[in-house]
Every structure is written in C-alpha cells, then in structure tokens.
Amino acid sequence: MSSIISIKNALFKPSLAKNIPAVYPKAIGLNIKSNETWACYGSGKTTMLKILSNKFYIPYPMASETFRYGAGIKNVKLFQFNSNIPINECLSTRYEHFKDSYFDQTCKQYISNPTGNNSRLYESIVDAFQIEELLDRWVMGLSNGQMRRARMAKVLLSKPDVLLIDEPFLGLDPATIKKVSKFFQEYSSKNNQLIIGMREQDELPEWISHVIGVEEDKGVIFHGSIQECYKQFHQLRDDMKKNELPTIELFNQEYHKKMQNCQRKEVPIFEMRNMTVSYSDSKVPVFENMNLKIHEGEKWHIQGANGTGKSTLLSLITADHPKSWNSHIWQDGQPRKSGRCNYFDINADIAMSSPELHAIYLQRGKEYSIEETLSSGLHDNSSNNFAPMWNKLDKLQQERITKIISELRLLSSTTKFGMLSTSEQKVILLARALLKNPRILILDEALSGMHSVHRDWALRQLAAWPGTMLAVAHCPEETPSCTHQIDLGIAKSN
Question: CB of 80 within 8 A of CB of 46?
C-alpha cells in the first residue's frame, strides 16, 4: 500500500504574511493510502478538501516532508458545484452558467477529453450519469441537474490521479444518486483515488473505508477507518444537529400583515395556458400544452427528476427564457407581451436564491462584506443586481441587517463573503432574498449544501413566510412547508 497524500504536523495558511493565522489552530497529521477511499464530514470539510488539493493553502513549515503527494501523483483535481461555472455577460442570470467558451458546444463535445477518451470509461460514465440522451443537446439547453451531471462526467474523463469532490450528490434526484453512488463504488475499487466531502445529514456510502471529521474552528478532530471512528463520527453528526440558531423575523410587520390579510384572488399571479416549450436538439418537448395557475400567497413545491423542466418553468416566471413573452403566459390576468411589461418590472417583484446565483456572486461579489451582500438584496430591480447599497439604507434597515449577522453567529459584518463557508454563504443569500419582501420568492435548491443548523433555521423562516413561494427541492429535509405541489415528470406524462 503506497502513500497517496502525506501530511506531517503541518499548519496551513492562505499566505505567508506574518499576521495571517492558520486556517486551523492545530497542526494536521494525515496519511492517505492507495487502497483507501475517504470522506470528509463536518463544518470544515470544504476547507479540508482545499488543503488536500494543495492549491489554496501553503503548508507551514515549508519543508518537503510536511506535505507530499505519492510517486506519480501529478494531476489532482478538486471539484465543487459552486465554482468554476463559466459566465457570459450576454445572457440573463438563469442561463449564465451555460456559457462562455462552452456556449456553442454539444454535451458530447463539452465532456470529451481533448487527449482522447478511454472507451470503456466513457461508456460507463455516460451510463452512470444518464448522459446518453443528452450527448447531442447543446450545453445551453441543459437543466441544472443535467449540467451538474455533465460537469461531473467531464472531470472524470480527464482521468485525474486524485479526485476530490465536495458534495457529489448535491442537486441530484434520488434515482440518479443511487446510480452515481454505484459508479463511484466501482470507480474507487479499480485503484482510482477518490475523496469526497459529505453533508452531516448524508448517509455514509458503504464503499467509504475512512473518514475525517473536521470543524471549521477546531480543525481535524478525528480521522481513521470507519471502525476506528464510528462513535466519533456519529457524535459529530449529532452535535451539528443540536446547534439551533434563533428564529429572527426578516420581513417587516407591515408586509406580514398585508400578506396575511390578502384574500385569495381569482386572478392568478402567474398562469400558463397550453404552453409548449421544446428545443431543436431534442425530440421530446420540455412542456407540451402545459397549464398551471399560481395564486397570491400559495407555496409550491416543484418536483421532478433532472431534465423534466423545473429550471425552464422558473425561467419563464422570471422572464429569462426566450419564450417568456407570448400569449400563452399570463400575469395578473393579462397576457405577458412585449410592450405591456418589461423584464425589470417583472423582477422587481421577485427575489431568488439558487446555486447559479451563488456561483455568479462568488465571481462578482466575493470581495464584498456580509453587510454589503445583504444590503444588495434591497435593490428594487432584479436579484442579480449585486451592487452594495449599505450606505444608502436608513438606520432601521442597517440595524436589521446587523441583527441578522449577529444572530447567524457569523464572524463580523465586515467579513468578506468569499471568506465564509459554503453553508454560511448560502444562508446569507437566502436572507438576502427574504429581506427584499418580494411578492414571489423563488428557491431553486436554495437549501442544498447547507449544514443542518443553517437548513433548520431556513426552514423555520420559510414556514413563517407569508408571500408566494416556489421551491425546487429533491430531498424532503431540504423542502420548505408548502400548500401546493407539482411533479413535472408526472405532469408531462399526463
């Protein structure tokens, strides 16, 4: 058994500047061997994966034996769903992640390895990630879940020596999770080095042999085989579920009273009448003669396997889809046509939190402070206006934001967004959406990737939310309380 990654009594820093503290207070000692498959759990899992990738932090002391990859290890890749998403200024928020140099590629061209594909590996990945029917589709036309599967396939086909994946099952429907997990089991059994980061609510896959427990403020608290760390592992999961955050009111009293007293109108806030959406590269339409009515104050759970049209439906509501303007879409009892209302008027009533918005904000606003990030949610126009407006807020608004930061137990109001953990970033973006007091709140897998403490806080906030809500979620524990539901897979078959 050869060593793949060896760390000997090392601290890790983002830079070697004198006043910069180590990311963890205690030195790390770790030896990962070739026949082992590891999982990282805890609030510090993402930081730990970054350390293992050797691309974000500098080991200290800087000696050759402090951090070392095994012989022949050259291509180490860290894969995260909330990063490395290509952006293009020409497309609106919901389509920006399809872009840049990948805009005019088919899925097959996108995932293929420029140096050539191993045919057996290629076929197994295409099958496991259910990509066969997507190969001739343009990347621009893939749904969120389909794009995630394509990105995962792409990194696997690059044949890394060591692959680190943070939350590999994020955003996948249950059937796909089972198939992907089985693929990883076979993949790791063939001497492919795989290390994954898991949320505390996730069950440990049976093919994992070793586990690392990591807390953001303490560092590595245990590591070893499943048998050795069984009690510590379950204790960590239990402890993370006990740290409940207080429920604070993000929407003002006047708005709450207005929405609670609002009678259910006969005229829907949004309606689709015999709506058909299809892409030229697909034989099966996304929607065909689809009918849907959403009334003021209703809370909808939008379900369906990857590719059934969840993202398309949301982009029609936000007027981001090319077919958003036609006589089959009605808004407040009027057909939505060009000249009758514009994009900014529509989105002035909408707030959103989604993995795509998260990825875009990481590229555009990671240097903004927490208070600047939250303040940007109070813009009158769309959710993708990230310009800070802290100095334009009145005293009451600033006090509300300061209280939120305090109650969420974040470091400081001036802490940069990019310095927060992924879970902290997601809960801040959700709070940003709620602060706007929107007429329509759209949550596209907004709770996926949150630690249980933040997720439970979010669920309590959303249970008290008085406005109209549309929530896409695959897992029951990430689904807000709703009054209505639609399964687009069933709706299409009917």
Answer: yes
Is 321 strand, coil or helix? coil
Tell me how far the alpha carbon of residue 345 is from its chain's centroid: 27
> Is residue 43 within 8 Å of 49, Cβ to Cβ?
no
**Tokens linked to 143:** 């749904």
Helix (H, G, I), strand (E, B) or coil at 28: strand
CB 436 within 8 A of CB 351: yes
Which phi and psi angles does 135 have, rounded to 5°? Answer: -55, -35
Contact 380, 438 (CB under 8 A): no
For CATH 3.40.50.300, the residue range(s) in the chain are: 3-242, 253-493
Instruction: Say which residue the tokens 């398309």 belong to.
Output: 312
CATH topology of domain 253-493: Rossmann fold (3.40.50)
pLDDT in tens, 5-14: 999 988 898 8
Q: Is 3 helix (H, G, I), strand (E, B) or coil?
A: strand
CA dist 191 and 196 (Å) reads 15
Average pLDDT of the chain is 82
Its pTM stands at: 0.66
Q: What is the CATH number of domain 3-242?
A: 3.40.50.300
Tell me phi and psi for residue 389, to 5 degrees.
-140, 30
The alpha helices in 11-169, defined as continuous H runs, are 45-53, 107-111, 119-128, 144-157
Summarised one tens digit per residue, pLDDT across range 231-261 is 888 888 777 666 655 555 555 555 555 555 5
